[in-house]
Amino acid sequence: MVRVRFAPSPTGSLHLGNALSAVANRRFADEHGGTMLLRIDDTDPARNAEGGAEAIVADLEWLGVAWDEGPVRQSARFVRHREAAHLVGEPDDEGALRFGRTTLLRPDGTPTYQLATAVDDLDFGITHVIRGNDHRANAALQAELIRALGGEPPEYVHHGLLLGEDGRKLSKRHGAASLADLRELGFPAEAVRAYLEELGLPRHDVRFDLARLRRLSTEALAALSDEELAARVGVPVSAAPVLRGARDLVEAREYAKLVLEPPTTPVDAPETLARARELAEAGLEPRALVRELKAVGGDLRALRLALTGRDRGPELWAVVAALPRDELLRRLEPRLG
Ligand code: GLU
Asked: Which atom of ligand 1 is nearest to the CA of 142?
C-alpha cells in the first residue's frame, strides 16, 4: 500500500517549489490508490513562524490538495524521537547524541530534523518520499538511520527545484515565490494547480514561467460560470460581462470598480451621449448599441469616458452590458465640467 507524506516546515505560506512537492505527492498517492500524510516539520525553532502551520493548511485547501491523515506535528512526537535516538546514538563531549557525524539530539535534548524525519518516515510506514532536490543529500543518512532502527527505508524520489527566471532560487525578488504572493497577484487556485500539474515531477531544476501561469489564469477564469466568477471577485453577478475580459482576479476587481463606482469625469460630447441614450432607451442590445453608435460617427472614446471615467479598459459593449439600465442611462446624462 503506497503511503506518502508532504512535510513542510512551518515557515509561512508555501513556497511554490514546496507546493510542487505537495501536488506531486497527492498525484502519486492517487495514481497508486495510496494515502498521503501531512506532517509539519517543526523541530527547528528558528524556522517556526507564528501561524506557519495554519498558513500551510489554508494554502493546501486553497490549492485543492487534500491529505488523508494529519496534520501531525513532529514536535508532538519528541518522546518517541528521544527514545529512538538512545537506541542508535552515541553521546559526544557536548552532551549531544550522535549517529556517526550527524547530531540526533541536541545537548538540550531536542531532536534534529534528520532524526525526527527518519523516525517518522519509519513509524508512519511511508513507502515513498517525494521531495525537492535540496534534500537529495539527506536520503542516504535517513535510510541508514531507518535501517539502524530495524526498519526498511522508503524509496526516495527527488524532483528539480523551481528557480527564478535568472536561474537563482525563486524568491519574492522575482515578483512572486509563495502561494500567498500568487494569490495576491490575483491568480486563481485552478491556474496555479494546473501549472504545477503541468510541471509534474521535473528531473532537473525548472525556471518559473510567469507567462505560462498568466495564460492558465485566463483559461481558468474563462471556465468559471458568471456566478462563480462574480463570487470570487466579490461583486454582484450583474457585473459579470465586464469581468470576462480580465486575465486575473486583480484585474477583474479593477474592471468591476469601473461599473460599480459612478464616474465623475466631465465629458464634453453631448451629441454622442444623446444618441447613445436614444439607442439605450430603444432597448438595443449592448453590441448593437456600440456598433450603431460607431456607424453614425459617435465618439466611442467619449462614450467610454462617460461610462467608466477612464479612456481605457474592458470592451465597451461589455461595460454597457454590465451596467443596469437605470445606471446606464444616468451615466449618459450630460456631465459637463
Ligand atoms: N521539512 C523539509 C522542508 O520543508 C522537508 C523534509 C522532507 O521532505 O524530508 O524542506
From this structure: 9
- Quick one: 181 and 277 in the same domain? no
pLDDT at res. 45: 85
- The rounded Å distance from CA 39 to ligand 1 centre is 9
At 85, which CATH number?
Answer: 3.40.50.620
Task: Return the pLDDT at 268.
Answer: 92
pTM for the whole thing?
A: 0.93
The last residue of a domain, from among 151, 174, 199: 199
> What is the C-alpha to C-alpha distance for residues 1 and 54, in angstroms, rounded to an integer?
29
- CA 188 – CA 62 distance, rounded (Å): 9
CB 36 within 8 A of CB 2: no
Residues with CB under 6 A from ligand 1: 7-9, 41, 117, 131, 135
Using CA atoms, how far apart are residues 203 and 54, in angstroms rounded to an integer? 30
Give the pLDDT confidence of 11-31 residue by residue, as tens digits. 999 999 999 999 999 999 999
pLDDT value at 337 more than 70:
no
Quick check: is 223 in a domain?
no
Residue of 131, 145, 155 best suited for mutating to test ligand 1, as the one with most atoms within 8 Å of CB:
131
> CA 13, 19, 20 angle in degrees (round to 5)?
160
pLDDT, tens digit, 9 for 90 and up, residues 206-262: 999 999 999 999 999 999 999 999 999 999 999 999 999 899 999 999 999 999 999
Does residue 47 surpass a pLDDT of 70? yes
Domain boundary residue among 199, 214, 244? Answer: 199
Overall number of domains in the chain: 2
Q: Containing domain of residue 82, as a range?
A: 3-199
Do 272 and 167 belong to one domain? no
Distance from Cα 146 to the centre of ligand 1, integer Å: 17
Q: Is the domain of 34 the same as that of 117?
A: yes
Nearest to 125 by CA among 150, 93, 153, 87: 153
Tell me which residue has its CA closest to atom 3 in ligand 1: 8
Residues recorded for the chain? 337
Mean pLDDT of 292-315: 96
Q: Is residue 59 part of a domain?
A: yes
